[in-house]
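Forwarding the complex inputs:
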Amino acid sequence: MQKTFKSDTCQKILKVYVRSTSMVCRNEEIMKISVYLQLDKLHRKKLLTTDIRNLGIGVVGLILFSGFILNLGLCTIDKSPVFVFYLTCFIVAQSFYISPLITVYEERYVSIFKKYKNVPIDKHLFLQSKYILLTKFSLLFVLPVQLLHFAGLVRTDTALISVTGFWPILAMAASLLVQLVFVRIMARELWR
Amino acid sequence: MTEKALEFQHVSFAWPDFSLTDVSFSLERGYLMGLVGFNGAGKSTLFHLMENKIRNYKGSIFIDGFDCRLQEPKVKDNTAFISDDQSYFYEETADGNADFLGPYYSDWDKETFRHYLDRFEISRTMKLKEYSRGTFIKFQLAFAIAHHPLLYVMDEPTAGLDPVFRYDFLRILQEILDKENASVLLSTHNTGDLDKIADYITLIDNGQIIFSKDVETLSDEFQAGLKERERFQIRHLFQKGRWNVTER
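Prediction (whole assembly, two chains):
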């Protein structure tokens, strides 16, 4: 069936789709997942609650920075509570980011597919796009925190190449694992 | 591509207190079939099977030649389900829902969607949860038309709608049949609606198809006298008290 997307927002998606289908590509799934990723991004941007959730992520960033300043002042950047602090902040930030894509406001814990039950989606690709977006967000979020952490360790004369040197990345990996399990629970009907 | 928009092949399904038994019927493209039966006869269960809400049934259901269970995305792309219990983003507006769900369809047309929203006088800025039942059905119809399905499956769409919109609704269905060569499976208790537009009538009772015939044949048969088997089945229903004429 010929694709005839006509709305403004869909034109971008169509371009991605047409470009990808016209390419001689090894893996057809890669082409399709790009469309799913675009749709997820559009979805997130257009939600009425997006601004509140973005604000939430901003607040977490601010708390992280405040925590960094505080620990820097007290020279406690290499103490173990900092790891827990990072972990908590990352889990909250990731939740703010991913929740619009996997939950719906009126029914928080229903399956991720409930609102799409009569929509022609490939459930596996639909889920993969969520994983990719979450991972991308996590990597972008952890980088500045990691750099600040290194700066803090230098200030407290702690070795950078040690476990304490990679606490932000370790905390992000742990929180990512928690989120992936949560996404998997929200997509439970795929595993039944 | 097949000429059959919908085909049930020996579908059976059992719950502890209800069962569908050997349901077989088909609907050709471009026609409207009315599905009639009492409450609890199995109409909504048939729709649930088509929607894949229930998967553990025997037999097969094909929509436009695609198996409902095995080729779900293709089936959903070619089918529009309209009923009270459809899932949308109720905290979002009509436009929001169109943006979130529409692009997943291969033939989505937002301009058509907006055109029908205006025609049905539906607010684009109201959240779906604020819609009345009638407005929600109108919204679903606009959404369905915008993705150009080959089959419309409607469960009691005209119940609770005002007469003016009902008239308009039937006219739109006629347009769909004429212009888009789509088919409609319409479940309703309002047989007056079916008199006007149905090409086929399927009667279901107690999980069994009593008959599935075109309106002309049905009319002829009723005029000439019912066939023996159907006469027996309808007499049986009378005896069970399910078709008590004096009460209804």
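Chain B has one domain: 4-209.
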